[in-house]
Write a structure and sequence with these properties.
The complex is a heterodimer of chains A (about 450) and B (about 425).
Chain A (H helix, E strand, L loop, with lengths): L13 E17 L2 E19 L2 E7 L4 H22 L12 E5 L9 H18 L5 E17 L4 E18 L4 E11 L2 H4 L7 H15 L7 E7 L1 H13 L4 H5 L19 E4 L2 E2 L2 E2 L16 E5 L2 E2 L6 H7 L7 E2 L8 E2 L3 E4 L6 H6 L3 E13 L4 E13 L2 E5 L3 E6 H6 L3 E2 L4 E3 L3 E4 L1 E4 L1 E4 L2 E7 L3
Parallel strand pairs in A: 4-6, 8-17, 16-25
Antiparallel strand pairs in A: 1-2, 1-5, 2-3, 5-6, 6-7, 8-26, 9-12, 9-16, 10-11, 12-13, 14-15, 17-18, 18-19, 18-20, 20-26, 21-26, 22-25, 23-24
Chain B lengths: L3 H12 L4 E18 L1 E19 L2 E7 L4 H17 L13 E5 L7 H18 L3 E19 L4 E19 L2 E2 L3 E7 L12 H9 L10 E8 L1 H15 L2 H6 L19 E3 L22 E5 L2 E2 L6 H7 L11 E3 L6 H6 L3 E5 L1 E4 L7 E7 L2 E4 L2 E5 L3 E6 H6 L1 E10 L4 E13 L1
Parallel strand pairs in B: 4-6, 9-14
Antiparallel strand pairs in B: 1-2, 1-5, 2-3, 5-6, 6-7, 6-8, 9-21, 10-11, 10-13, 11-12, 14-17, 15-16, 16-19, 17-18, 19-21, 20-21
Helix pairs in contact in B: 1-2
The chains are: A alpha+beta (about 450), B alpha+beta (about 425).
Amino acid sequence: MFNTKQYLSELSKYMELKVQENKNMNITLINGTVVTNTTSTTGGVSARAYENGSWGFSSSSHLDDSSIRYVLQTAKANAEFLDQRLRKNRPFFKPNDFSFSKSFVTTKPRLTQKQILDYLNELDAYILMKYPNLIERSIGLRCLDMDKSLLTSHGNTLDSLLCRSIIFISMTVDDGNDPISLYQIYGGRGQFEDNFITPEELFPKIDILYDELIQKSKGVYASAGLKECILDSDLAGILAHEAIGHTVEADLVLAGSVAGPNINKEVASPLITLKDFAYEYNGETCPIPIYIDDEGTKTSDVTIIDQGILKNFMHSKESALHFGVEPQGNGRAYEYSDEPLIRMRNTAILPGTSKLEDMIASVEDGYYLTRTNNGQADSTSEFMFGITMGYEIKKGKITRAIKDTTISGIAFDVLQSVTMVSDEMSWSCAGMCGKKQPIPVGMGGPAIKCNLKIGGR
Amino acid sequence: MMDNLLKYSLDEALKQGADHAECTLTKKTKWELNVSGKEITLLRTTDGRQLTIKAIKEQKKGSISTDKLDNEHIKKVISQVISNCESSKADDCYAIAPMEKASFIGHALEPDKEGMYVLLNNYLKDVKEKYPLIQMEPCIWTHISEEKQYANSNGAELYSKDGTYEFMAAMSAVDGEETSSFNFTGFLRNNVDQGILDCGSLDSILGELQGQIHTQSLGDKFTGTVILTPDVLQSIIGMYVNNFLTDGNLISGASPFKDKLDQQVASEHLTFMSNPLGPELSCGYHMTNDGFIAENQKIIEKGILKSYLLTLEGSNKTKLPRGKNHGDAFVIQEGHYTKEDLISSTDRGILLGRFSGGKPGSNGDFSGVAKNSYYIEKGEIKYPLSEVMISGNLIEMFKNINGISKERIDFGNALMPWISCSGITISG
């Protein structure tokens, strides 16, 4: 951890100084061939200065005393460049003095890259031996360590080392006409040694993935149109993040998102409560725990929707000042050279009381959708998610699997249509949210029953 | 003249046991103005360096990137690269580029800071006057100066230095409590001679957004025509290339184009190139990511597949020809129709302003939401749409081209027309 405190006297009225290093490990095997075997380190120092409503930012990949002084001076000069031209004359932020230190580094002995590659090769050998009919198998490992030291002119400090390690496995079969693929992601918060003990632990999950792939290869195209659907927890999580979460980021509210005029109005079924958790849910650490954000704000949970009523937006220090509320720590940045933006942390719909089997039994003609590969949303809350695995539901029973498709809807309308919410909750943190910068986020939720549009033929 | 750092890195890699090694040193500085809402909010300057070292030992490969560039750290990093090699599996296809030496100096190496500020300020004033309902979030106007050096143990030494002005904006139109879908566009330039609003497709997208606040649902499902706008086409071409013509799916064998070289894979209307050296594009590049001097190349000519965009290792692995560049500089040949001709000849379909969809399947199947789009019936644009999904197959879509426009949008790093394709499922 870098001691940023020695520069406190160099910081002007409102400034942040950050020293950060991101380490990435990226290994990909395609059909047993190692096509990528890299590690990368991106680190350096940055400073951000606020001058009467104008921001200046500067960064350098050099990390020595002269570079630190250089970025401090340049950030101030950049803020002044704008202030001299724009003269916004806006107030400064209220000080607070919270500091925090936390590391998620494993306590186990670190594995070498060879040991990690051996682990992946064992997974590959298992897939090849057990499923020789695959036309493609791909195994990827993505590990990220974010080591950050922050100091603000208010005296806040943060020293954190946040780690994530995920393995993705993709399989492809030929259904006689076309290649059909399916992938799954395993792992999450923590370093490789904490998430992946032995390859054998993943074998049963690989078997499930293969079974689903075969079902999908024999599956049918969904019938396009408005349908009653059960979204499994992964999809509820991405719905919470993409379709609702982005519309309530205060910068997007100011840019005209549909959420803006709906504060304190009913936007969802009373069964829906949606929160952006800072670091803990039900006493358990969240996938991406944020205790203090990149602006030095002590974090707390943001209740976005409470029993159907839209209650809060997510804020940076600046947007909180604009709206006259307290910031709750949503100012986040990805790399040392990135400025904080308003970002989500761990966004989730809270579980309800229904049983999944009862929810499925209640659908006459619809779909049970279980896996997604991506999602996009709009300022209108209209969203689109790719569906990579799902099933038809006919007369309350799961029948045939479906091929790749897409679902869409207006999120607030879809949430108004929710009639059942399951009592189970699951989290995922494989995703990177994109908004000028990528950032790792957590998403969670139960299964929900709702109406939405499904693509197909 | 090879940088001392690269020479040290190559020598050290060979000394530590590599049979072959290559190094790329990239130095990048940015001067960036950010807009939020309707005002400039942030001036951001960054200064970064990155050294990437790849080594091959006994036909095993490893690579590492780092931005700590002192000799002691590099020595440690190379030791890690060699360790990565040793942990890898041997593959005869691993290779580095042959000996080539070249140096390229481009334009706009330093930012015209005052010029950039004035252009952005004028743009904000222009938008406020001409399109008062527009909100921007975010809008970024950047000068990027990049110096790149590549060297390898075969004696290759490539150097390029270039500067680019890059504009990117996401925006929506807001009228009281009503809002349009957001849309986004951008462009690259190598000077600040032209007003921002006059570049790329920005002016037309801003104008259209103001008319997209009040939309209608289709309430129907049919198989019809989709006219891809230049912005959409740019992203669709990216999907097409990634899905069928680059290392991933060609190495795995999942690309349906793996045995289609010199065969008809698309409509004879379609000819497209990747031309990083211009002359059509002002912002290309001179060297590939794997150490070759970039050349222009035809990818599809009158519907016939002429080349792939494989790397050297991808080429070795697949036994298919290496790409002469790494894509990202796509030029689609203009057609014989006006944009209006394409609309007026459409019996039933949509003008697709943005496609919000996921990665297509290996076979090219895609589906997603038609955003910022218009319903067309009997040759006329009827109304802006909401909640409309489209689905089809990328390969079939480019086989079913009805026509390509004469007009093209110059994005600086791509030149794209409007293309009309039939056989797309449209529902909403």
